[in-house]
Design brief:
This protein is of the alpha/beta class and 259 residues long. It has a single domain (5-255), classed as 3-Layer(aba) Sandwich (Rossmann fold). It contains six helices and eleven strands. Strand 8 (163-170) and strand 9 form a beta hairpin. The longest helix is centred in the first third of the chain and has 15 residues, at 41-55. The chain is globular.
């Protein structure tokens, strides 16, 4: 008999993908004040996939619970409301101070504690966040939990005896892996097309449960292991030169030592 799915979906509030990031005046980080933020695009895929598993009845035992979780400042509640408007049942907000960041290992430890507390048997999260691009949290979480993992999923299928088959894109083709629950899956762009949260669902999401907790509730403290010394803009690219004809091109290449 297949067990019911209890899905934990970590989401992160990041600078919107359409915004061009700028370095702050102190050159210590990217400027975040007054900049549009939204849900990390890879996490949108995770929420969408979780909701589709329920809607399309893809798992034999059904979906008992979809819980979104995010660690961040007070405004991180916005992305949790979006996740609930997309179809998550409830949410957990691990409150951090404005400007406080967590490294992937701390996030993984927090998610491990959350998965155990919520009795989750499937964690679906984005393969990376577009702010630090570390792509480490899912792998670290699977290691801490001792669960199998399938990263960069472009297709997720369910079989008998709580098995999950995941197709992922690799250099030069695709790779298919199969494992049994409990499991960690990280999502890639070809997995699905996330839905827009409709106004009625946004209104309904306001009535869904959003628990506020601190890292201390999971027995953790936020102790960074890395220190950013300096952040700078990339050097401006030099413009290219123009040549009149092929002879001019050949002469220029010889001048540059390319021929």
């Amino acid at each position: 008999m297949a067990s019911k799915l209890r899905i934990l979906v970590p989401v992160k509030r990041v600078i919107d993908y359409a915004v061009k990031p700028r370095v702050n005046k102190a050159m210590t980080a990217v400027e975040t004040a007054g900049v549009k933020h939204s849900m990390n695009p890879f996490d949108e895929l995770s929420v969408e996939e979780s909701v589709r598993i329920r809607e399309k009845k893809r798992f034999p035992g059904g979906v008992e619970d979809i819980c979104a979780i995010s660690a961040g400042p007070p405004k991180a509640a916005d992305v949790l409301r979006t996740a609930m408007a997309m179809g998550a049942d409830r949410a957990i907000h691990v409150e951090l101070k404005d400007g406080e960041e967590m490294e992937p290992l701390t996030v993984a430890k927090m998610l491990k504690a959350a998965a155990e507390r919520e009795k989750s048997n499937l964690v679906i999260l984005g393969k990376q966040s577009i702010d630090d691009d570390a792509a480490q949290t899912g792998q670290m979480l699977a290691g801490l939990l001792g669960w199998p993992q399938a990263t960069q999923a472009s297709k997720v299928e369910f079989g008998e005896n709580n098995s999950i088959t995941v197709t992922k894109e690799v250099d030069g083709g695709v790779e298919t892996v199969k494992a049994k629950l409990p499991m960690v899956v990280t999502t890639d762009l070809r997995l699905n097309e996330p839905r827009y949260a409709s106004l009625p669902n946004i209104m309904k999401a306001k009535k869904k449960k959003l628990d506020k907790v601190g890292l201390g509730d999971f027995g953790l403290t936020n102790e960074p292991r890395l220190k950013v010394l300096k952040v700078t803009e990339p050097a401006p690219r030099q413009g290219g030169g123009k040549v009149e004809d092929v002879d001019g091109l050949v002469a220029k290449l010889k001048e540059l030592g390319a021929l």
